[in-house]
Amino acid sequence: MQDSEISPAERRRLRVRGAILDAAEKVFAEEGEAGLSIRRIADEIDYSPAAIYKYFSSKDDLVDELKESFFGRLLGAVHEIVDRREPFSVRARRCMTGYVRIAIEKPHHYVAAFSGVRPDAETSLDARAFEDTNKGRAFSVLTDMVSEGIEGGYFRSDLDPVNTAKSVWASIHGLTMMIAHLPDFPATASMPGGMNQAEFMEFHSDLIIRSIEKTSGEAA
Amino acid sequence: MQDSEISPAERRRLRVRGAILDAAEKVFAEEGEAGLSIRRIADEIDYSPAAIYKYFSSKDDLVDELKESFFGRLLGAVHEIVDRREPFSVRARRCMTGYVRIAIEKPHHYVAAFSGVRPDAETSLDARAFEDTNKGRAFSVLTDMVSEGIEGGYFRSDLDPVNTAKSVWASIHGLTMMIAHLPDFPATASMPGGMNQAEFMEFHSDLIIRSIEKTSGEAA
DNA sequence: TCAATTTGTGAACACCGTTCACTCTGACCT
DNA sequence: AGGTCAGAGTGAACGGTGTTCACAAATTGA
């Protein structure tokens, strides 16, 4: 064991690396991927632009790490909701509204996290890799939630959990993207007394749940 | 009337403008917004880069026109579906699946069309402007469809058409974005016999419709 | 025919991501 | 202690971007 397994110079390296990520995170949150430049980060931490390449092999690499860590926080938040000791019905709802709520706290992050369209698309994600992603893990949480609902008799028993989870995810994702892209999404000028964001999130979640929940007169 | 109201030099101008848009459209469809550059367009039409600025005030302007015209085509296609002489139930379904199907024929266009996040977000769309947009008109078509469903007794009568249309739009939009970003979206390696894209679109639409349709034992 | 408007251009500006030869510092080994 | 060597950090450069501007060429109108 000697002393701490990892030490003197290694720590400095991690500190600088962290500073780069912090600076990038700050700029990214405020101005999005467009406002983020290597030179800008370098200015922020008083280094030369070239220095950053000693810590990240490319800007894409750096940004990927930002996205992944964001999705990690999102995953953690959703997980926390799902694991609560509460009736399934409230957990299911909060799982959806929570996803949207947390995601849109950092709209640029969320949008960017889904913009990983590789031009070639050559077997872009082979599921093995996908499940090693925070995005993949978030999907797993959703699948588990749906499975629990089916097994618990809350959701229709003729539904396939995986496909259902995908559909639910798509619907939630859609609302999130809408709000992220159209900053005052649910608002409508031609309807002054309309819903606010929170109310609409509830409304949307209601509809989603209604689409998969067991109809009243059905056997378990 | 003399001759054609608009003529000799004006036509040449429109022709060049069109050529620029065509070249841009081609590159954009193939390589997305990333691969599109003013110099690239200029090369394609054998003009100097500066020449383009005699026809468009900025690259954003040019791209906006591309997006708007794409959404116009999408709108037209959806409209065509909605206006068909068919039972409401099939029109409603095809309206959704058609939206997704046509949108993902040009993934780059669709994604870009929703990426108009103005950094300041200062009253970005004041509804008056929104309804003058093809995006806005597409939303109107959806609202009308929902209204028709409610009035015809197909959908729950306690639903507000505007908010319901927004929710449906969000869900459809979500699936479209999923497919656009994750090229082989519905696929799952851990589930070999999974649905293909078309099947999943039907499945997703089924769930959406089920969430808003009248439950069996209910009065009109 | 002459003047005026418009179309097109080449060069430049300021930015971008990235690379490379280079210096310098700090750790390690004898 | 001195010498070596990996690594951090840098300035300059390359090729790319959107955009501007003064200027030349062409087309229009009178």
UniProtKB/TrEMBL annotation, chains A, B:
Residue ranges of DNA binding: 37-56
Single annotated GO MF: DNA-binding transcription factor activity
Key word ATP-binding present: no
Domain of life: Bacteria
PROSITE patterns for this protein: HTH_TETR_2 (PS50977)
HTH tetR-type domain sequence ranges: 14-74
Record-linked Pfam families: TetR_N
Protein name in the entry: TetR/AcrR family transcriptional regulator
Key words of the record: DNA-binding
PANTHER family reported for this sequence: HTH-TYPE TRANSCRIPTIONAL REGULATOR RUTR, TETR-FAMILY FAMILY TRANSCRIPTIONAL REGULATOR
